[in-house]
Design goal:
241 residues, rod-shaped, 8% strand, two-stranded antiparallel sheet
Length: 241
């Protein structure tokens, strides 16, 4: 603090810094609160999606077993197809309190279904059910990936924001306040010194004025004595009436 000159200008500068730091602290606090709310929402959504995925995955694999039992082993026929993707994953960005979160979405390309002739001999309904079950499972898997990725990104953003809030609250603002307190003490001390100096100067002036008045009175007294001493009544001539 000693390297900061205790002047009115520096006092105003550090007051402005303190105001800006307090404003930034309030904004970051609001941002941290918003991120916490979104963080809890993501955690809840992840738990719900995982619980539903457990049932969906078991249902999908069970339907695959049923289809293989009804139509035989058709995996070789599926792998011999053109393998054109009917489903793709799109990537987007969601902005939450200034934090960009990656979002994955499910969309269909509109490509024709390969191996549409599967199940003509038998098990067609079971194979169609397998398609539907795995489509639902894939949608939930993409949703979970999106939630999990956003959750991790949000967690890192929360840590950074909380560190900034703590730094402003426990380091920056107290340091600025300490400098302001130091400047206030020094300025008060300078004001007291100036006041004492003015009182001394005023006291000296009063003493000088009293001495001057005293000297003037003494000088006036000497002048009256000199006039009366030079006057002699015998020197006056007689007056005849």
């Amino acid at each position: 603090m000693s390297e900061v000159p205790p002047t009115r200008m520096n006092q105003q500068v550090f007051k402005t810094k303190k105001k800006a730091a307090e404003s930034g602290h309030r904004l970051l606090k609001k941002k941290a609160d918003a991120l916490k709310v979104k963080f809890r929402d993501y955690a809840k959504a992840i738990a719900e999606t995982k619980s539903s995925m457990a049932a969906d995955s078991s249902s999908a694999f069970f339907s695959l077993t049923q289809a293989e039992y009804a139509a035989g082993n058709f995996k070789q026929k599926v792998s011999e197809g053109s393998m054109t993707a009917r489903v793709r994953v799109g990537a987007g960005i969601d902005n939450v309190a200034g934090v960009k979160l990656p979002v994955f979405s499910y969309f269909e390309t509109g490509a024709a279904t390969d191996n549409a002739s599967l199940g003509l001999v038998g098990g067609g309904k079971k194979i169609q059910m397998v398609r539907e079950k795995y489509t639902v499972l894939l949608q939930n898997l993409i949703k979970l990936a999106s939630l999990q990725t956003s959750f991790v990104t949000l967690d890192e953003a929360m840590k950074v924001t909380n560190r900034r809030v703590n730094a402003l609250e426990n380091v920056t603002i107290p340091k600025i306040q300490g400098v302001l307190d130091y400047i206030d003490r020094e300025l008060d001390e300078l004001e007291r010194e100036d006041f004492t100096r003015l009182k001394l100067v005023q006291g000296k002036k009063e003493v000088q004025e009293q001495q001057q008045r005293k000297m003037m009175k003494e000088a006036e007294g000497h002048n009256e004595e000199d006039i009366m001493g030079t006057f002699d009544a015998g020197d006056d001539e007689d007056v005849v009436f």
